[in-house]
Specification:
This protein is mostly helical and 97 residues long. The chain is elongated and about 55 Å long. The protein starts with a helix and ends with a helix.
């Protein structure tokens, strides 16, 4: 049916979009916010965290990394706009949103 054909097409598009690297999804403005609000100006910490997340296989592992490593180390408020933006990007990277 037409509905089934469109569903397959939508899944294919979703898969292609979710295969983008996280580093490619972060424009200059977002990078500035993440760097200053989340990583306290430490560009190496931001870059290595993004690279590590890009190397992971799934959202569950990435979420665990963010919660166990980054949130505690940098005292992130999980309700802040910058953290929500970062997690939204991570979800998009793995096709969860």
């Amino acid at each position: 049916t037409l509905n089934e054909k469109l569903k397959v097409g939508a899944n294919e598009v979703h898969r292609k979009l979710s295969s983008r690297a996280l580093k490619d999804m972060i424009d200059l403005n977002k990078r500035f916010v993440l760097l200053n609000d989340l990583f306290k100006g430490n560009i190496e910490a931001l870059s290595s965290s993004i690279s590590y997340i890009d190397s992971l296989d799934n959202f569950t592992t990435a979420e665990a990394f963010v919660k166990t490593e980054l949130t505690g180390k940098y005292n992130w408020d999980e309700n802040s706009q910058a953290v929500r933006m970062f997690m939204k990007l991570v979800k998009q990277k793995f096709g969860e949103e």
